[in-house]
UniProtKB/TrEMBL annotation:
Its EC number is 6.3.4.3. This is formate--tetrahydrofolate ligase. It is an enzyme of class 6 (ligase). It comes from Chloropicon primus. It comes from the Eukaryota. Keywords: ATP-binding, Ligase, Nucleotide-binding, One-carbon metabolism, Signal. GO terms for molecular function: ATP binding; formate-tetrahydrofolate ligase activity. GO terms for biological process: one-carbon metabolic process.
Length: 198
């Protein structure tokens, strides 16, 4: 329900994909469909793509297409882009996560100051945090409220057009090198050994 409410704050219709499993009962699916529609979903579609391939997602695709054409859509950011970085982070923490406070590490404070001086403070935020909770604590399940979010770092993806605060101890995938490693992998034709993997 929280996810549906959050997405609606952006002014777009919400399509819920209900990933069906063989062990699901019709009653379970009906409860999820009903609750999702009551929460304001535009559509709820059972999706069997993992069992049936593309054919199992046709209804879902049709619902997404309808939502994209809906007069209900009026996308907007959650905050004005000209707000300061911390104000944007606070808006997301309060409105999306339902946090009551945000704390910043020394590193995050330095980065915010740097990005502001560089003129990147007008970029939107893309928060990086655990997928297991609305908080930065993977053990805080459900839809918690009144907790403190910790911003450990803030990184810039200027080319992609956003800043991404890192909430809590969140591992990130390292960037790829400019020269892919596969250029150095080959087969030694004399021995048949693969070289360049170390």
């Amino acid at each position: 329900m929280r996810h549906i409410g959050n997405i609606k704050k952006f002014g777009i219709p919400v399509v819920v994909a209900l990933n069906a499993f063989a062990s699901d009962t019709q009653a379970e699916q009906d409860v999820i469909k009903s609750a999702s529609m009551e929460a304001g979903a535009f559509s709820v579609q059972v999706s069997n793509h993992h069992a049936l391939g593309g054919a199992g997602a046709l209804d879902l695709a049709g619902a997404v297409q309808q939502a994209c054409s809906s007069p209900e859509k009026d996308f907007k950011f959650l905050y004005p882009l000209d707000l300061p970085i911390k104000s944007k982070i606070w808006t997301i923490a309060k409105e999306i996560y339902h946090a009551s406070d945000v704390k910043y590490s020394e590193e995050a404070e330095k980065k915010i100051e740097l990005y502001t001086k560089q003129g990147f403070d007008k970029l939107p935020m893309c928060m990086a945090k655990t997928q297991y909770s609305f908080s930065d604590n993977a053990k805080l399940k459900g839809a918690p409220t009144d907790f403190t979010i910790s911003v450990d770092d803030v990184r810039a993806s200027v080319g992609a057009g956003f800043l991404f605060p890192i909430l809590g101890k969140m591992p990130t995938i390292p960037g790829l090198p400019t020269r892919p490693c596969f250029f150095d992998i080959d087969i030694d034709t004399e021995t048949g050994d693969i070289v360049g993997l170390s």
